[in-house]
Amino acid sequence: MKKGLILLFAALLILPACKKGNKEQLPVDFVWDRVVCEECKMALSDPHYSAQVIDPDGQPYYFDDIGCAILWLRRQPWRKKARTWVNDVNTKKWIDAEKANWTYGDPKTPMGYGFAATLKPVKKPMTYKTVKKWMYIGKTLVRENTAKHLGFESRSPAIVGPDYIREAGKSPIANIKKND
Q1: Among 83, 137, 151, 164, which is most exposed with the fewest C-beta within 10 angstroms?
Q2: pTM of structure
Q3: Per-domain residue ranges for the chain?
Q4: 23-26 long-range CB contacts below 8 Å, 24 or more apart?
């Protein structure tokens, strides 16, 4: 009986210490290849490009690519109170997305968006705000890669839209009649 009371008392002392949470919204460790992206459901396996969003309560949400994090976070009502962490493409360490020097054009990003973050100085760095804006308007390598795949690599990605593709007869829906 005494042992039971001592264990109960010890548990009551330890339990509040475990309940501290993550009020500082710091990145949370996880096991690579065992966690999936909230947006695309791909496993997080590349520690050069992944991201995590920490909600106001300290709950982490994991992403294989910053593009996925940005698209997912945009739909969350608490998005302005969230903190976003990304892997430094050079060191693989977690860095605050707001403090990173962003580059565009990296062909190795998991989802092909092309954004990479680092704390090292880079030529013509982008801000996180610009990265988010480009994601919102679709200015990513995905569009350029699609244009190359369809044979429009000599054209600017900005003009390779659905109308241009349809006019060129490259789209499978180009030959469908309106009555079909």
Answers
A1: 137
A2: 0.72
A3: 22-149
A4: 23/58, 24/58, 25/54, 25/55, 25/56, 25/58, 25/82, 25/83, 26/54, 26/85
